[in-house]
Amino acid sequence: MTIKDLIYLYEQEKRKVGNEAYRFVSKVLKDAKELHKRDFTGNDHEQSWRAFKGKNLEKLIEHIIVDEVRSLGLDIINGNSLERKSSANLSKLLSMVKRNLLIDYGEYGSHLPDVDIIIFNPQNGKVIAVLSSKVTLRERIAQTGYWKIKLSSDKVTEHIKVYFVTPDEDDTLTIKRPAKKGRAIVETDLDGSYVFSETTIEESGKVKMFDKFIGDLKKLIK
């Protein structure tokens, strides 16, 4: 099982349901798990699957949005691609992107936030938005809130929008009130969250179904 297989499953779903395919990401992951299990030869399939899912959900999201992001004149890169390489080993453009995202910790150096996807302007390397993704919110949503606070504390990075993208399989974001902790964090500490879900959630200005994402991104570059 590879990311190509996961993308293939998503594209199969897209052929069946068209633009509503984003709602069925959890179904795609469930189907992928069965294929992953069929090919697995170790002792702990659940652990192996969790690692695969965690690593490849962000790549699937990147695949889903990349064409529309580029149609807006923007570009996209995986956060790990910047984290792993020193600026000397990046192109001039990506080195600028990295520099424009660094958080200054004073005597402890400058470090990139832990984000999965970075959307930037390829003309000048300006970072427009960063996305974190997880199948459920749990502890990751609080981490994402932390990065939003850090980015907002510096004039160079305060404009960067911080979003969380999720299938929300534990239904943390479904109900607006009474809000679960994860929804409260999104509503107060992030710029927004976009949900891949067959369930229609109670939307707000910050919590929306995923089909609203590109429209909101477009507003940032007007």
Properties at a glance:
222 residues, alpha/beta, Restriction Endonuclease, six-stranded mixed sheet, two-stranded antiparallel sheet, 8 helices, 8 strands, globular
* Radius of gyration from CA coordinates: 18 Å
Domain module tally: 1
- Please mark out the parts with pLDDT under 50 across 5 or more consecutive residues, or reply none: none
Structural class based on helices, strands and sheet pairing: alpha/beta
Strand/helix succession = HHHEHHEEEEHEHEEH
Strand ordering within the main sheet: 1-4-5-6-7-8
CATH architecture: 3-Layer(aba) Sandwich
Question: What about the largest sheet?
Answer: 6 strands, mixed
Distance between the termini: 41 Å
Structure description:
- This protein has helices at 3-17, 25-39, 45-71, 79-84, 92-99, 138-152, 181-189, 213-220; strands spanning 75-78, 103-104, 110-111, 117-120, 127-133, 161-166, 192-195, 207-209.
- The protein has one domain: Restriction Endonuclease (3-Layer(aba) Sandwich), CATH 3.40.91.
- It starts with a helix and ends with a helix.
- The relative contact order is 0.12.
- The mean pLDDT is 92.
- The chain has 8 helices and 8 strands, in the order αααβααββββαβαββα.
- With 222 residues, the protein is an alpha/beta fold.
- Helix 1 crosses helix 2, helix 1 crosses helix 3 (45-71) and helix 6 packs parallel to helix 7 (181-189).
- The longest helix is centred in the N-terminal third of the chain and has 27 residues, at 45-71.
